TrEMBL record:
Biological or metabolic pathway of the protein: Pyrimidine metabolism; dUMP biosynthesis; dUMP from dCTP (dUTP route): step 2/2
Family, per entry: Belongs to the dUTPase family.
The protein's required cofactors: Mg(2+)
Purpose of the protein: This enzyme is involved in nucleotide metabolism: it produces dUMP, the immediate precursor of thymidine nucleotides and it decreases the intracellular concentration of dUTP so that uracil cannot be incorporated into DNA.
Protein name: Deoxyuridine 5'-triphosphate nucleotidohydrolase
Enzyme class: hydrolase
GO biological process, one term: dUMP biosynthetic process
Amino acid sequence: MEIKIRSERGRMPSYETEGSAGMDLQASLDAPVVINPGERTLIPTGLFIELPPGYEAQIRARSGLAIKKGIGLVNGVGTIDSDYRGEIKVALINWGQETFTVQDGDRIAQMVIAKYERITWQPVARLQQTERGDGGFGHTGI
């Protein structure tokens, strides 16, 4: 699948291994950005994409940054919709206990392209029963 992309600095999202589902996104900064513990900030990537209808770009945290430095995404997983044409920016949060500095070119997040279905709701009076039923959080034990 090919997707149109514009990059302000000539950097492209890239798969780091053959089996990678996500492409690393790099920060596009004129100056370093410091994120203190508990702070959140929006980091630009310099990337603009044109997704076809029926696809989204999911922006996810990098596991290494999360476990080693406590850096995550404010909204858990971000969604870039197919009709969005603005710059991709990453909402980072410092869950850690130490200041974290983002430099230009740092790999700050990963992007996964996913297909989705649009639905229409079908109102009904009853739903089909299952063995699980309404068993919720923790219903299967530990």
